Amino acid sequence: MTRDEVKEIIMIMTYTYSNYKPTDVKATVDIWASILAPYQFEGIKAALHAYILSDTKGFAPSPGQLVDQIQARDFDMTELEAWGLVNKALSNSNYHAKEEFDKLPLLIQKTLGRCDVLKEWASMENDTVQSVIQSNFIRNYRTVLQREKERNKLPTRLRETLEAAGAKMTEIGTTVNNTNGLPEDTRR
Predict the structure, then answer these.
(1) Per residue in 3-30, is it b (16+ CB within 10 Å) or e — as a string?
(2) Residues near 12 by Cβ (< 8 Å), separated by ≥ 6?
(3) Residue 43, helix vs strand vs coil
(4) What's the pLDDT band for 40 if we cut at 50, 70, 90?
(5) CA 39/CA 69 separation, integer angstroms
(6) Which of these, 22, 40, 32, 92, lies nearest to 63 by C-alpha position?
(7) Counting beta carbons within 10 angstroms of the beta carbon of residue 169, is it exposed (0 to 12), middle (13 to 18) or buried (19 or more)?
(8) Contact yes or no for 69/50 (Cβ under 8 A)
(9) How far apart are CA 136 and CA 124, in angstroms?
(10) What does 84-103 look like in DSSP terms, one character per residue?
């Protein structure tokens, strides 16, 4: 977001909330602009409108509350809706687990981890799948959803840096596992 876009957000808040009067508008705009720089103006503006329409306390939002509004819209699938998609995918996963896995939303894929899980679950007793597996999936989905919400609050550059570091750690772990724990140079 630009400073001018942040000014518009602050102006909307000032006119909407009679108790919101920043003591130093320039400093407020500067701080908000630096915090909200990674976000799109239209997304923050829509989040502000959603906040205003659902607010019952009468206090202007903080930048974090607006980011939470954006996150709520991005992650609106409930745990049971996610399980419903997995359950549907299971019906065709004995022979087509990879194809079914690829059709699932990314959050569900992250929860499952790999396509083989669908094949394993498809071969289990239905009672076990609909009780134990379902409850484990829902708990894991809730954890992945929360982790993704927190991760998406981070600025894009920081997120990319963390993802690159994670990929590097995975690469290092794969190299170590392939060499029986010895660095590549010492295997000879």
Answers:
(1) eebbbebbeebeeeeeeeeeeeeeebbe
(2) 45, 48, 52
(3) helix
(4) confident
(5) 12
(6) 32
(7) exposed
(8) yes
(9) 15
(10) HHHHHHHTTHHHHHHHHHHH
As given in the structure block, the two tokens for residue 54 are: 């659902």
Amino acid at 16: T
- Tens digits of residue pLDDT in 41-100: 888 998 999 899 999 999 999 999 998 887 665 566 789 989 999 999 999 999 999 999
DSSP 49-77: HHHHHH--S--PPPHHHHHHHHHHHHT--
Name the CA dihedral angle for 175, 180, 183, 187, rounded to a multiple of 10 degrees.
Answer: -120
Q: Which amino acid is residue 179, in one-letter code?
A: T
State the amino acid at position 30 in one-letter form: D
Indicate the residue type of 9. I
pLDDT tens-digit readout, 157-180: 887 888 888 778 777 765 555 555
Please check whether residue 48 is in contact with residue 76, taking contact to mean a CB–CB distance below 8 angstroms.
no
Distance CA 9, CA 17 (A): 12
* Amino acid at site 101: F
Between CA 48 and CA 58 the distance in angstroms is: 13
